[in-house]
């Protein structure tokens, strides 16, 4: 069933686990995500990026997520979220389309501009009764249309605890994306969670914190993140890798098949396997 993100996040906040926010781009990925949530009786966030909206169209992708949530996850809560919204027009369209949550990513702007741009979208989201996620500090790497090159001094891009209170009070965000050592893309062994920084942020604000760049992150870093206040973990790259690698393998095996259903089906199953393992690591299994 499709629910407001606040019911999922409030429970995760009370019980101390993280929700997975998984990016979808089509029917098969959506089915893989939702089937994993159903199999593990876990709440789940399904999110779309601006790049996906360009690719699939807002209405088609919204209807796919809504329909799969209603029909395949009858008693499992699924929330729909816009990931890395940069364009106010797109954010407004998503709110009109019924999203219960949007991410306004103005993180590359200087602090005061980030606050002003974020506040505009937060106010608009609240008019719809929706939640808004802000981002303070930038997540390095590439995600859809968002690209931040990895510099020699990555720490400079991390969230500065000394401005967190001011940012949250001035923007009125409902959830806060922080940069604490993870990156967009798959960089196993190179990503980490800066425990001290995250702990400092958690002490300063009571808002549910969001960890972007969850692909490639070790089990122990995930545990640290959850222990110090992360309540949503975003995963995209590992889903794309599972989908595409399975597709390539399957195409090679079925050289004479022209049936897209037979060629794509195993990719849906691969998505489900990845999502199930993440839900277990995040602690949301059995919390539906
Ligand atoms: O916004 C989406 C996520 O932050 C994706 O992160 O590339 O590590 O999967 P990822
Ligand atoms: Zn992200």
Describe this protein's structure.
With 288 residues, this protein is an alpha/beta fold. Helix content is 50%, strand content 18%. The chain has eleven helices and eleven strands. The protein has helices at residues 5-15, 27-40, 50-56, 58-72, 88-96, 111-127, 161-171, 195-204, 219-227, 237-253, 260-282; strands spanning 19-23, 44-49, 78-85, 101-104, 131-136, 140-143, 146-148, 175-178, 183-184, 209-211, 230-235. The strands form two sheets. It has an eight-stranded parallel beta barrel with strand order 1-2-3-4-5-8-10-11, surrounded by ten helices. Strands 7-6-9 form a three-stranded mixed beta sheet, with no helix packed on it. Helix 2 (27-40) crosses helix 11 and helix 10 runs antiparallel to helix 11 (260-282). The longest helix has 23 residues, at 260-282. It starts with a helix and ends in a 6-residue tail after the last helix. The model has no long low-confidence stretch (mean pLDDT 95). Bound molecules: glyceraldehyde-3-phosphate (G3H) and zinc ion. Glyceraldehyde-3-phosphate binds next to strand 3, strand 11 and helix 10.
